[in-house]
Design goal:
alpha/beta, 533 residues, 13 helices, globular, eight-stranded parallel sheet
């Protein structure tokens, strides 16, 4: 891939040299022991039409379990209503083109079945403000109805949705998308030069001014821009209130600090003053949402520079159900896949910096973007890093879908969501990188887990102590592990200590033993069970 062949590659031109010094300083009843767990082989050939395959795809065995609602958290851990730790894996599905709905791209039940059968349990669903509120104070609930139908369809397959107010470069007039034209205040500056995403961020004064005015809460149509934005979130929160399939709300995708960007590129320091401004913004949005919805998890994101290893001083909103949504992109891999050997320090810094925010605020952690690449090794590396840090993840993206501020030719797990998710329409190496065994729901606190791809060996160890520190889960409490057929087409065997196998197929359920304080399990190709209580 050429230097300018990727959206992340272009931003790397600006950030790579500044990043290097920053990183240097960055801190039930058991099955019989003879049981063999045969996994159905994944589909290999596409059907002639997606509609014809929908019923078959929907019938494919699921490798995910729907968590009990409402979803909450215990410090850094996302939890279900029973207190089990929830570790989601999945993809982003954001339609950045009119009419801005996943359904309009052809995303449907067959795609949800495909994700579930491969152990992918969450989707970050894009909600664009410009589609939601096309005129000041006028909301398009038919748009939200389409989003809600997608959320319900995903939920029917055990998949939860993170609703994401998505934007990149603010609005179409800046070659971006997300915010309505009526919410643009650029002081009348011409949108010039037009260099595309993401160069306009750094080189177009009109775009930087539009962001400056947003963060200053400049008045348009008689109300502050942030106040309009808070009202839009309040409407969405009321519309989706109590929806059992919603993981939470991602309040602002990749916030950009406008002309303050240069102060945010200080190695190992970032921009504390701008972070304070962003924290105040999230407090405003949180207050608006809480007037209509008291249970949803609310995720704030740090500035876009965080994605490349810069630290953040993002503070607490004071809300008891808050989380940190963060992204992980390596500028070297974005320039060329041959440079991905230089990526681990960048990814390590992102995870370290995310932990630092959670340690300071007590907020939950979720990696909501990585990928945007044709290189499955880069994706595997981030997945392994997330496993090591015990954090759920969502890859960018399910499809390229004509992404105007991305790399549509290379970033999709599925090439065309309007066609069956099978055969040549699926990026098989990327699917292999993502559809790996992982814990989904843990009746306790995860201590370590990971997947060794060459040997096909997955290991997990967890304490039976509740993540919130209020005691231990009782004997027989269930933990669920996704075991996708992609990795075990011939079946798998289990070695377990401190628990018994309660059920197995695409989902491996464990029931903790009486008196067990710790559970460990190993999954590898083969058949049978050994160990137990």
């Amino acid at each position: 891939m050429g230097l300018l062949g990727s959206n992340r590659g272009r931003v790397a031109v600006v950030l790579t040299l500044a990043c290097v010094p920053a990183l240097a300083a960055a801190p039930a009843g058991a099955l019989p022991a003879s049981a063999a767990f045969a996994s159905p082989a994944p589909a290999k050939a596409p059907a002639p039409a997606k509609a014809a395959t929908s019923a078959a795809a929907s019938a494919a065995p699921s490798s995910v379990v729907l968590p009990a609602a409402p979803i909450g958290h215990a410090g850094r851990w996302i939890t279900d209503a029973t207190g089990r730790v929830l570790l989601v894996t999945g993809v982003n599905m954001v339609n950045k083109l009119t009419p801005y709905t996943p359904a309009a791209d052809g995303f449907d039940d067959a795609d949800a079945a495909f994700l579930a059968s491969n152990g992918l349990s969450a989707v970050r669903v894009g909600v664009l403000w410009e589609a939601l509120e096309p005129k000041p104070g006028v909301f398009d609930d038919s748009y939200l109805a389409s989003i809600k139908a997608t959320v319900r369809m995903l939920g029917s397959h055990g998949i939860v949705s993170l609703l994401d107010f998505h934007q990149d470069m603010y609005n179409e007039q800046f070659q971006g998308e997300g915010e309505p034209s009526w919410a643009v205040d650029d002081n009348g500056l011409p949108a010039f030069p037009e260099l595309g995403f993401p160069a306009n961020y750094f080189l177009q004064p009109a775009l930087q001014t539009a962001y400056d005015n947003f963060w200053d809460n400049a008045a348009v149509h008689g109300e502050g821009l942030q106040d309009w934005y808070a009202g839009a979130w309040q409407h969405v929160a009321a519309y989706f209130g109590g929806n059992p399939y919603v993981l939470g709300y991602d309040l602002y995708n990749e916030p950009f600090p406008g002309t303050g960007i240069w102060s945010c590129l200080v190695p190992a320091v970032g921009c504390p003053a701008q972070d304070a401004m962003l924290t105040a913004f999230y407090k405003k949005i949180t207050a608006a949402v809480r007037t209509v919805n008291s249970t949803a998890l609310l995720f704030g994101e740090p500035w876009i520079t965080f994605d490349f290893g810069y630290p953040s001083a993002l503070g607490s909103t004071g809300d008891a159900r808050a989380g940190v949504s963060f992204h992980d992109y390596c500028p070297f891999d974005s320039i060329s896949a041959t440079l991905n050997f230089a990526c681990p320090p960048f990814s390590d810094a992102v995870f370290t910096n995310a932990e630092a925010i959670s340690n300071r605020t007590g907020d939950a952690l979720l990696l909501t973007e990585f990928g945007a690449t044709s290189d499955p090794n880069a994706a595997s590396s981030v997945v392994a890093g997330a496993d090591q840090d015990r954090v759920g993840w969502l890859m960018w993206a399910f499809c390229g879908c004509g992404d105007p501020t991305g790399s549509p030719a290379v970033e999709g797990l599925v090439n065309n969501p309007a066609a069956p998710p099978a055969g040549g329409n699926v990026n098989a190496p990327m699917l292999d990188a993502l559809a790996v065994p992982h814990p989904e729901l843990v009746a306790g606190t995860p201590e370590s887990y990971g997947y060794d791809a060459p040997g096909g060996v997955f290991t997990l160890t967890y304490s039976t102590e509740r993540a919130d520190g209020t005691g231990a889960f009782p004997a027989g409490s269930r933990s669920s592990i996704a075991v996708p057929a992609t990795q075990y087409p011939g079946g798998y065997k289990v070695v377990v200590s401190g628990a018994t196998v309660a059920s197995a197929a695409g989902v491996l359920d464990l029931a903790s033993c009486p008196g067990a304080t710790s559970v460990s399990v190993t999954v590898e190709p083969g058949s049978g069970i050994s160990g137990g209580c």
